[in-house]
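Run folding on both entries below.
>entry_1
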Amino acid sequence: MDKITLLHGIAWVSQVDSVTKMLLSTVATMAVAVATDQGSTQGFLPARSAATRWTGDTVLCYLDARSIPPVSSPMFEWTQHKFERLLAYHDAPGDAGGGKPVDTLFNTFLLLGYDWKGGQSFWPGVGPGPGMNSTDWSDFLELQLELGAVNIDRAAANVSSTMAGVGGPAAQGCGAARGIEPTVILAVPCPDSRQHNFGNITVGGPSLNLSLAADRLAATQWWVGEAVHRWTDLRAKGELNRTGLLGFYWFDESISAGDEVLLPALAATIHALDPGFLFTWIPYFSSASTHWYTHWQDLGFDYVTLQPNFAFHNSSAVERFEAVRELLWNNSLGVEMELPDYVRNPQVKDWETSFDTYLAAVTRWPQSPALMKTYYYGNAFVTTFAQNTSTFPYYQKLHSFVKGTYLPPPTA
């Protein structure tokens, strides 16, 4: 019996009896003990390290109900061409011919969603209810793989061929002979406790009730197992020749009651499927959540990047980025670069100012080039920055920042 089949036999059982509950509890306790044993050291989370599975700059790409034809907004329409402009820096904007790929850009893609069919949301407790069910979770996985990963793989093949033809540089961190070989992180849907009829996850089995802790865990374990199974099938069919599955992301940006038990058990399942898989998280900045910034390893995560939330909340740049820097340094965290084409902080004039503030503030931190970074958000990077002549300078700045060559303006 292979590892995945064994896990199906243990974790996918929905009618959890007392023995299974003890097993799940033991797995969770062991995961917490291992994570706590590792301890934490002072300093930024380094990119391209064992903890990050050797990845560096990860771009967030949102694909959800708005990405399903007929697409309601170009911002959520994903094509091979769009992924090409994230995999490789192109030397001209889309409205001026698009230019050609001349350098690598992002090496890892985090595929996640926000809105779903029927007004449902990926956020637990948000929307009309009763929350996403097993069919929704399965359809989202198909979207991540078919619209996301497969197009990324095709983009990597095309960019590698084109860059080889123009004498472009080798891919980041992987063999030059094969060209660019990106990796993908899949967002795990969060169980919505309002959903009492999730659907069955085994043939003939009962429907899960996501108000029950054991069923919430079983649903997430089923989904990551399905993700690995479907990824393996696509690779066998020749659809994912260059692209690797790096691991999984926990979508919720805060820790809800019961998550402190669910997450270590889910992490144990992910690592049992493949010890090389990672489990990661990107929480928002909040003084009320500092416990989990300090004890993130207890939750089973391999690494965490923190959202400064300067672009979205009424805050001073000096105070916010210094507070974030201290949290990162004291808890071995990475940082989320929040670079959308909008801004909600009333202290900031426009999104361009917010963009420049993030790049300048983080660049001035010591050891910034070696810091693990995730980037919000890829949709705007290709639909706005890389597309329009007027905003192309921000695509150029993004490229130089990723490459560690960005120079912030002198301080007054």
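>entry_2
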Amino acid sequence: MAVARSVKVEIPTNEAEEDEPSTLMGKWRKHYEEKKREGHQSRRMLYLCWALWVFQTPTQPYMAFAHIIPYIMYEFTDWTQYYVKVIYIFCVIQTLGNLVCVTLYSTRYVKTRDRPEAQEVRERWENAPDQFGLPMAEVLNGHLPDNGGIPWSYCDKCDMMKPPRAHHCKVCKACILKRDHHCFVIGTCVGHYNQRYFVVLTFYATIVGFGGVVLTACYLSMLYWPEAVWTDFLLPVAIYRGLFGAMKGYIAIMIVHLYTASFIGLFGLLYFTSQLIIVTKGVTLYELAKNVPIRNNKSTNANFVEVFGNFWFLNFIFPMTIMFPLENDGTTWKGIKLDHNSNYQGSDVE
């Protein structure tokens, strides 16, 4: 049986010989494309989102404890206010804690010299036989043997073999285990090791965001709305008047919170809903977007255990990384296959 081998030939090009754009719009477009390739847009988005977190984290709990809860719940007992504050701060801590965990837990597949799973491929490449073939005993019904898994593939960007369901991220410049998506709000990829924290983060972000909007709106409607004009609630006007003393500082901050908390709540609701759907199905956003024909034969509970570990619901109370770690290392996937009847070409283009 003849085997065709393809050779990748790189032809050097002289960028200096390329025609420079003659128009101002052409030069701007070229500059924009260069900055996009270098990742400047993703960094700007990351800085903007982290600035939002830095602003929102201290100011929203302070406004809730110092102004909103005591004013709205003045008719309730001190113990009732105390319990409301405890629940509120618990949700805030859960949001921030899982945000830190998503950022710190790396899900990259690092290139090393020791790749035992690719040893057979390396040996067959270095000691290639005269003819490639399989013993007839291993051929079942005219098909190659299938161990129920997904084969490894080669990443030409990282120059290494990458595990099943791992895909290259052009922003992180690395292969991500069970890559779900690159989240520009938190500035990292969501994958095998940090998806459990991302789901919980979006759950509590929804509660804190929309809860903050409701409480702040109630406070402003009771205290500030009778003497305000509608333009005061426009974001630029509130910032301008708050900075130059035409509006009380804490009122201006609360109006800003109406916008920032709404963004956090919408972000959390959108991603929490989508994450629940894909975790239930046992797939990833990347696989859905790229139409990867993943066929998952596991139950819904097994899919949640795969993401969160055993007793997965406890992760919504406290991170259970140490007590209930993940069952696999992100390189093997039992009960998951590729649908060989599809026309999927295995593209890994981001």
